[in-house]
Design brief:
Blueprint (H helix, E strand, L loop, with lengths): L19 H37 L2 E7 L5 E7 L3 H8 L3 H34 L5 H13 L2 H11 L5 H6 L10 H27 L4 H9 L4 H12 L1 H16 L3 H6 L10 H10 L3 H26 L7 H20 L2
Antiparallel strand pairs: 1-2
Length: about 325
Amino acid sequence: MTSSTTAPPAAKPQPPRRRKEDRAPREGGMAALLLSPTFIVLVLVIMYPLLSALYQSLFSAESGLDANGFVVEGESFVGIGNYLEIFAGGESGRFYNALWNTTFFTFVTVALETVIGVSFAVAMNRAFKGRAFLRAAILIPWAIPTAVSGLLWRWIFQSNGIANDLLNTQILWTAEGFAAQVAVIVAEVWKTAPFIGLLVLAGMQLIPEEVYEAAKLDGANAWKQFLSITLPLVRPALLVAVLFRLLDSLRMFDLPFVLIGPRKSSVETLSILAWDQSNQLQYGSASAFAIILLVYVAVIAFVFIRILGADVVGDADKQAAKQAKKQAAKFAKEAGR
């Protein structure tokens, strides 16, 4: 009797497992390759104009006569001379007036737009007959181009226009002074309040109906529901909408330009001032105004985000859903007592 033993098959050699540290550089390189077109576009449309404007702001246009009596035009390097001229030169008064107008229009219009926009959102969020028509009617002003709305309100505010007929007055709205500022504020609020209303309405759509039902069982009236549920839960969307409107209003140009006109001290903003300088071929000072406006907008945005904590990274929906669950649990607990 013979016995045979067979050796177990040899195990196939396994390829060495790639370590996580080895994959990281390759994945990082692929991510950089895929994102490179975006970076190139950003450099071309943002960084190059920005650096070009900063470089141009260091020069000043000059003209004179050469030794032969011919007119010679060119630019000379002045360093920060344009900035010193803006802040402490002969035209500094015009700059500070434009800075005040920009700030005044921004905070007044955004405050009014926030109140009216939230009211629009509450009205559009309710279920009633004709809600679709109301939503479309409210959003029409926002869809109209700014230049067209400026011409429309110029026709309304002219001396023999509808505004004076309704008020039975003869106010020169499109001339100068406080009346011109009121005309710009009215037209700006009319046009952009639906924008805030639209974003706030999107935030209100995320609030579960169970939260309001729990609040009703707890005896909360409509005003208390608005203060305790609606307003806290739409806060992330509202802050983002206000931030967008702040940045847009600080660049206000076309509406006062079309409605009132250029070189009107009561409505002249920093953007109009920069345009006026470039229109006179003073590209150095125009670039300096643009750089100052850019820094001013960046400072306002930074302060707004740091103080109020506006959500600009897109996790507002998650935060709203989390807060909604907390509110529902709170009201359910109070109702069960």
